[in-house]
Structures are given as C-alpha cells and as structure tokens.
Amino acid sequence: MKLRWLAGYGPAFVLGVTILAFWELYVRSGQISAEVLPTPIAIVRALIDHWDVISVHTLQTLLETVLGMAAATVFGLLLAITLEISRWSRRAIYPVLVISQTIPIIALAPLLLLWFGIDLGPKVFVVALYCFFPIAVACADGLADAEPELINLLRSMRASRWQILWLVRLPGAMPSFFSGLRIAATYGVTGAIFGEYVGAYQGLGIYMQLSFNSHAIVLVFAAILVTAVLSLLLFGLVSLIERIALPWYHGSAIRRL
Q1: Using one digit for the tens of pLDDT, what is the confidence trace for 221-257?
Q2: What pLDDT is stored for residue 26 in this prediction?
C-alpha cells in the first residue's frame, strides 16, 4: 500500500516541494518585492494569524459550494435520465446544453446579483451553473453506454424501460457520474468565489477583493491557499464516497492492473 501511494503521489509531492522551495528562494533573493509576491512561509503565517476572520469567510464559501453542488447533482441526474428515456429530448436538449457552455458564466454573475441581490441564492445558482454541465453530461454518457448484452437479456425477460434503467443503466452509469462529480468539485469553489467577487457580505471572494484593495497581498494569497485546499478536500471527499459506494468497480480496476 505504501509503495503504491509513493508511486502514485510521490512525483507530484516532490514537484510541489521543489516549486515551493524555488518560490521561497526567488523572493528571498530580492528579485521581486515580498509585498507583491509573498513567500510561502509568509502566506502560511498570515493564514494562521488571521484564521479567526478567514474561517468565517471560508464557512460561507463552503456553504455556497455544497448547496450549489447538491442542486447541480439533483438536476443533472434528472436531466440525464430524461435524455436517456426520451430520444426526442436527447436530440432537442443535448445540443442546447452544449451550446449553453459557450456563454461565460462569469459574465452572468453580475446580472444574477443585479436581479436577485447579493444574498445566498445567487451565489448558489452560480455554483450550480458551474457544476451542472460536467455532472449532466457524464451521467448522460454513462447511461447511454450501458452493456448491450445485459439490456438484451432483460428485454428477453420482458423487462420494462424503467426496470432496465434501474437495474442496468443507472448502476453502469455510476462510475461516469462520479467522474463528472469530481470535476464539478474542482469547479464549485471557483464558482462561489466568482459570485462573491461580484458582490457579497461574506466569503473568500469578497475577502480577496477587500484584501487586495487594502494592498494586503499576503492575505489574498492566504485566501487562495484556502480555496485550493477546499477544492482538494471536496475532490477527495467525492473520491472517498465513490470508493464506498462502488467497491465492485474499484476492485475490478485493481485486478486489471
């Protein structure tokens, strides 16, 4: 297990430490002002010193992210099932769904806040918009790629379309669904930050903006560090839930290796 962990994450860990060491030495050498580019050590110290304030903003951003991801998951699954049970819906809605992603969501955030205010709802909606597409598309593709042999077997037993969906398509689509959910987990915090950056009372986005306006660049980097950690934690949580929910999938993957 340890050897497998080292083989999988060792190179990334070494690369990360190397980048941080180069960053620290570069700033300390005087090539750039520490007020413009703080050192990693200074960022961690600032995070610890201001954690009582940053933690409040972190909880707000986390709340927006979780609610937005939950909404995106529910509606993404419902849309994917709709696309699967109705060929007309797939031909009509799927292209529109893809085209909708050409609209920059960051441009919609100010309009949403203008229409609905700067309360919790608009930020949750922005997060849901960021997370909806990867979840819906991954689940729809997973439902469409079900094993044809199993489907033919159930059809020979006169199973209904809903029985085939429940017994074959949905279980088979779960690996794809979790892949989309992992991608959405990395988008969610960013979506919340964008929504807060446009206008909010609390959250890491507004904290970054206020810190930047106060020329406290080290606090901006501290908030960025928290944002990255939140994204990694959500990604890891989704991966953990997948391993618990789909032990058969990961067991077969390990045997193939």
Answers
A1: 999 999 999 999 999 999 999 999 888 766 554 444 4
A2: 87
- Render 185-224 in DSSP notation, one character per residue: HHHHHHHHHHHHHHS-SSSHHHHHHHHHHTT-HHHHHHHH
pTM of the model: 0.84
On the 0-12 / 13-18 / 19+ scale of CB atoms within 10 A, 66 is: middle
**The one-letter amino acid at 188:** G
Q: How many CB atoms lie within 10 A of CB 116?
A: 12
DSSP H helices in the chain = 2-28, 40-49, 51-85, 87-100, 105-116, 120-144, 148-156, 161-164, 170-198, 204-213, 217-245, 247-256
Q: Are residues 191 and 127 in contact, defined by beta-carbon separation less than 8 angstroms?
A: yes
Report the pLDDT value the prediction gives residue 107, as an integer from 0 to 100: 75
Domains and CATH numbers, the chain: 55-256 (1.10.3720.10)
- Of 13, 37, 35, the residue nearest 25 (C-alpha): 37
pLDDT tens across 129-177, in order?
889 989 998 998 888 887 878 878 878 887 777 787 788 888 888 999 9
